[in-house]
Protein 1
Amino acid sequence: MAIHASAPPHTAPLVLPRRLRIPRPLVPTLSLAAGLLLWQVAGSVFRLDWLPPLSRVVADIGTMWAQGQLQPALSESVVNLVIGFVIAAVAGVTLGTLMSLFQKVAFALQPYVNAFLLAPSIVMAPVFFIFFGLSRATPIAVIVLYAVLFIAVNTQTALKTVDTQLVEMARSAGASRWQIYRFVIVPASLPLTMAGLRLGMGRCVKGMINGELFIAVVGLGRLDSSFAGAFDATGILAIMLIVVVVAVVATSAVQIVDRRLNSWLYREG
Amino acid sequence: MAIEQEPGIRIEGLSKRFFRPAADGSGTEMLHVLDRIELEVRPHEFMSLIGPSGCGKTTLLRMIAGLARADEGSLRIGSEAITGPGPERAMVFQDFALLPWASVLDNVAFGLKLRRVRRTEREATALDLIRAVGLEGFEKALPRQLSGGMQQRVGLARALAMDPRFLLLDEPFGALDEISRRVMQDELIRIWESDKKTAVFVTHSVDEAVFLSDRIVIMSSRPGRIADIVEVGLPRPRTRDMEQDRIFIEIRARIWQALGL
């Protein structure tokens, strides 16, 4: 393994004076802590209606939890998120695989794929509402639409960029078409596919909250719209914090699967 | 090992053309890569193909491997035409072509896994070959943890694990630095001389070809033709002091002459 003795100076990160140097892994945590502290201080000093201090928002979450207001909304949202993500992942990976297998078809479908990728998926929410009504299927459909093509395009790229030399090597060693898929193309494309799924999960969270805000009768979205109606900034920020936590936990879950499936990438050395 | 009647490879009237977009943008241009090649690879010989870039030597090797098709002419092993890859042929690639997610052991056992050889059996074979190429202790390492020379040892062990009759090597040391290259030449010739599988070796290096080969096929550039075939009359086992040998020096001079340089 070639180890570069030193990075060229112009690409080196900002070098702090020695006494200010902070261990790298701590930097994001410290920056987050500083932001939260700033929020707390600004909130308690300026006493603005739209900026309650962090402590009050956290206390609000506690109250909502104690009153049993939060749990049903949260579980409703999270269940929708999980179902929506699973559907989007399975459909997206399947679609992406088909698009890589049948390139002419994929090429013909490209304008549609692009149109749906670029248009804000939420515009489809009323259509789903007409279709599925007030059932759980409406927010789930929104979640799926937010992520499915995104995951599909990532999977397609992952499969298309597999090193052709590896395929050639397997072919020369007598691999069948299926074996080439199973032993070369799938493992080789897995890191990019998983990256697509991780980002896809982020989009699912957006779909979750946007769908619920639109329908406004379920989950965290309903709570959020009711707080918005009452100009309750504390409640809105509380929901925002919860959504952020849900997003972080959900993406970490995908990341754990990724680290397991692609463990060779994360091995040291 | 069956000695008598073991077939070599017969290549007759082999031509290959490629089409590619013309450099000046005026439609496509045709590249005549190989032009009516006649060649016989004898059983148990070490044959090198040498020539300038674009002379079609790699294309010829890929056709022997069954990875590319001829436009005209035929390639046969004995009486059987080559129509695709086969278990009697194994290839070593210039850029190693190792599976980056698989350990050295799994990479070496890969061909056997494709043949559905049982795990314990294929790992035993792989371990033998890992030892033979001097990688003992690196069984669990990933390719990226190895140097180029070590990676190509894995590539060589993988090909040998399939126990082929023909070893096809496509500039296997072309990506290595000169020192690793020399070490790998010694290693290859030591392993090759122990059982003399018929070898076809593509190279850019004249000295490498002379040191390793029984015969050297010199090719000329587009259309690729055979310019000369040189028998290397050096005894085996080959040793480095033979590089000072008069025969070695004469053959080297003759190859450069055939290459027109």
Note: Residues 1-8 of chain A have pLDDT under 50 and may be disordered.
Protein 2
Amino acid sequence: MLVDYIPVGIMIVFGVAFGLFMMKASEWFGPKNPNEIKQSIYESGMEPIRSARERMSIKYYMVAMLFIIFDIEVVFMYPWAVNFRQLGMFGLIEMFIFVAILMAGFVYVWKKGALKWD
Amino acid sequence: MNITELFAIAPIISITIVSLIVLLVEALVKRSEGLSYWISVVGLVVTAYFAIATLPLIGTAFNRMVTVGGFGSMFATLFSIAALLTIILSKDYLQKEHANFTEFYLLILFSTLGMMLMASAADLIVIFLGLELMSICLYVLAGFLRKKVLANEASLKYFLLGAFATGFLLYGIALLYGASGTTNISFIVQNSSTLSASPFFWIGLGLLLIGFAFKVGAVPFHMWVPDVYQGSPTTVSGFMATGAKAAAFAAFVLIFLHPQSENSEQVKTVLAVISAASMIVGNIIAISQSNIKRMLAYSSIAHAGYMLAGLAAGNQLGKTGILFYLVTYTFMNIGAFGILSLLEREEDKNLTFDDYAGLGFKRPFLAALMAIFMFSLAGIPPFAGFFGKYYVFVAAINANLTWLAILGVLMSVVSVYYYLRLTVLMYFKEGDMQIEGIISKTSLAVLTIAALIIIQLGVYPSSILNIINNLN
Amino acid sequence: MHEYISYIVLLPFIGFLINGIFGKKFSEKFSGIIGSSAVGITFAIAVMIFFEMLKLPVEERSHIVTIFSWIAAGSLSINAAYQVDQLSILMTLIVTGVGFLIHVYSIGYMHGDKGFWRFFAYLNLFIFMMLNLVLADNFLLMFLGWEGVGLCSYLLIGFWHDKKFDTGGYKTGEATTSDAAKKAFVVNRIGDFGFLIAMFLIFNLFGTLAFEDVFSRASAIIPIGDTTMFWITLLLFLGATGKSAQIPLFVWLPDAMAGPTPVSALIHAATMVTAGVYMVARCSVLYALAPASMEIVAIVGIATAFFAATMGLVQNDIKKILAYSTISQLGYMFLGLGVGAFAAGIFHVMTHAFFKALLFLGAGAVIHAMHDEQDIQKMGGLKSKMPATYKTFFIAALAIAGIPPLSGFFSKDEILWKAFSDGSVVYFIIGWITAGLTAFYMFRLVSLTFEGKERWSHDKHPHEAPKVMTVPLIILAVLSVVGGFVGIPHALGGGNAIEQWLEPIFKRANLHLATGHHSGLTTEYLLMILSVFVGVAGIYFARKLYLQNPELVERLTTSFRNIHKLLWNKYFVDEIYDATVVTPIVKGSDKLLWKGFDVGIIDGIVNGSAKLTAWISSWMRKIQFGAVQNYAMVFVLGIIIILGILILK
């Protein structure tokens, strides 16, 4: 049984090693000419003047969460689309139900003003 | 797949539609609380009707994802009734707390849907799905009175620990899948003897057990219970203690009391140890509580312990016992929390034992109901609570767990002390409780019905036992 | 006729419902009539059933009347059924007969009380539960009645909830009747624990809980001296010690006297406390199969009889004395059961019900007349003021002292005789001494209360109780006199009718019991004379001391100060229980388990391991979880343990 997991183990080891290797590789092979401007955090941006641990508007999270939710729901449509012919009429009705439930949630979100930025 | 399958899961569909209607009503209608309350009540009655109507069905549906009828329908009935009682009792409470928002009904309905999915699952994934739906709604409900510090604490603690437990549960499911190549419960259970060679199977099973033990509030996964029950809206605490606990026990029974297999010795040991620890810790700590909500929280840990004794027994009688226990426990606990919610005042006043002094003279009817609930919780015949305990302990003795039964009876002797304390205060001490807000006739009627059901099930337990024994 | 048994049980319940629901609006008289007639009619039906049974041949006297199928869960199937036989009908007659008289008496006694209707509702509920207990045909229904009478007893002890009561030195001044009620309930639950476990074991062993099946199977398959049977009978006896106030669970009964006096008479003297005796007698077969348990029953019985009698010697509360006397007499009954004289034990239940109910009701009349004064040191000379009460009380005292031909003589003597012939000489000697003590403290009570000088202030005007109270007293007095004639032993030319009547019930048990070596008639006569002598001696000394030489009492008390203190404080049993059981549990809950385990130890473990695993906690602290991290820590510990058990096996 345990043998079946060997590929997974190799994958993990390889993944970690590759990541570390790439970081170190750029350190080794890249030219190093440090100067004051290069040492600053954003070479061509603004100087950070406040703490990075800052509160963000809740609206940002709202939109982000809603995006993820509806984005992921769409993923479920791919396998359905692939098997659309075999599923036939029943599948179509099922998908309508699925979308209807999604729409109910969407209407709720919209009417509650979660999408308003102001 | 065909249309008959849709009818077979009518209770689940019905509660889904009701939830969606309430969702849309909330979005589209202004000041929708009254309307959604009625939709929820009617919808839950309809759902309960479907649940009862589907009781005789047998088999599975949707590619062996859910079972239909029987066990699942019985639980669906129980959940609908629990939700119905909770919603009706909450109305007064929410108005008093200035928190009568439609979302409350919505969350109760969705969590009920989650519970129903858990109880009728034929696949581990469906159990997980139901558990998450139920839990996420309950996390929000725990913090529903968001202006209270305790409520925020409750919600956050419940969420963090709940997420922690869910992680283990999911990991357990993954390991079981790894060991067996399927998430189908029947398949895993039937092949448990061959699968048990793999350590993954045992770790997976153990993690599954831990996930459910967390949800029922068994020791040592009980630490959240007192804080959460104390901080949550009182009626929600009642709902958590009954509905959510019942759902987790349903999942427990589905996997650990499967008719086609027997638990191995070590699973039996684990369950017996958890059961014993819960009975001891719950009952003994409950003695020193001064807040009744916390007392009921610890007592609910103890009750989980009693029911786990039936699970540890692992026989048919144990299963009957757990189901009967859950039915009776639902009524007596929602009743007790319901009375608390009616008498509670702002800033958590009227929640300590001392506040209840003299209630027997001031509100004799409410006090009598509370006394019935307390006596039943203490397991004193002729109230239904006695028979629940009776079955699980007989089951434990039949399974050669005599020590566990003796411990259980001993601990229920201890429990008499704190249940009786409330009764003594209500009837035998003078006091002056200030009652604010409305105590509507509807709430009183609901509580009376709950009390009558407790007496009816105590005097004539066969009425429900016949249904339980004829389940598939 | 026996099929009417369900009405017997139902009538008091209907009475309870009527008074309980509408009682508030009723007049006192109407509530009283409803309550009393519910029990009265029940008694009448029971009498008719009894006479019908008398006419039937012996084999046809036992019937089981099934009301409905109560529980059917897999292998567990129990009917709600009543067993009408010689034993249960006798108990029914006692419960309803004495119960009816006490109901009537209560109409007078409770006159003017604001909870009058409530009182009758509870009394009726009690009768209902008690009938379930004695008529049940299976352990579960019996347990239901068993718990039910406990509940009623609890409600009735605390009837005057705010009344202070004197615990006799222990926690004086702070106790109220509600504490007494709670104590009774909790102590009883300890006994019930034994009963429940025994019931589980019986079910496990025989697969049924119906008496008839259990007893016939036990009789057929279980060998004498079986270990399981020993535990079952011992646990059942633990239940009996709780309900019947025997060592070690007798502490609640004296405190239970805080309830209204008719309650003390009915529940805490005549009926409920004899439930333990009834239960052991009912399970006689099981006890016959466990000789070791029988021995324990006998020893506990005789020890209780003796110790309770000594405690009764020094009490000053009229009801407390009677309470200790009840405990002591119950001890006699258990002695009888323990030596295999089941019929004698039940016989004593019957006679005791008559004279002890009478004593309590008489005491109630006195307390009533003295305006709630219960201290006998503040009474005296009531003879002339309350002649009817005095006479009936005197008869009852003679009966309990075992003076022939009153009822107490026959039943007590039967037990002592059986203790001698089937038990051992030691039982007899202790029982004999106890009989002397009984006579002594009873006549101390009579002398101090009714005779001698008046020691009460003259703003009190004691007067005879109304007719409604004295008539029950007179009836009970008659019964106390003639009640023993049903059990005149063969030695005195009687037929011992009661033993014959009960014989079929105990037939199976007697089969298994080694038949005692029957000592001759001469011995029996001799023992009889001895016990009459000790009774007379007790009476003589009590009268001599308390009527003629009161100063001698003072001197005796001071010279035996230590013994007096020990007896006065009831051997400090309450204090010992408090220190060894109650306090540790309450403290343990508060300090150890809650603050200690959940807060202290867990935090300690967390703190300790936090040091060990500093690098984990350094980033864990940044995410300020507060106490939740401790919770999660416990959680993880649980996981490790559970997975450990599962994997390591």
Note: The first strand of chain B starts at residue 60 and ends at 61.
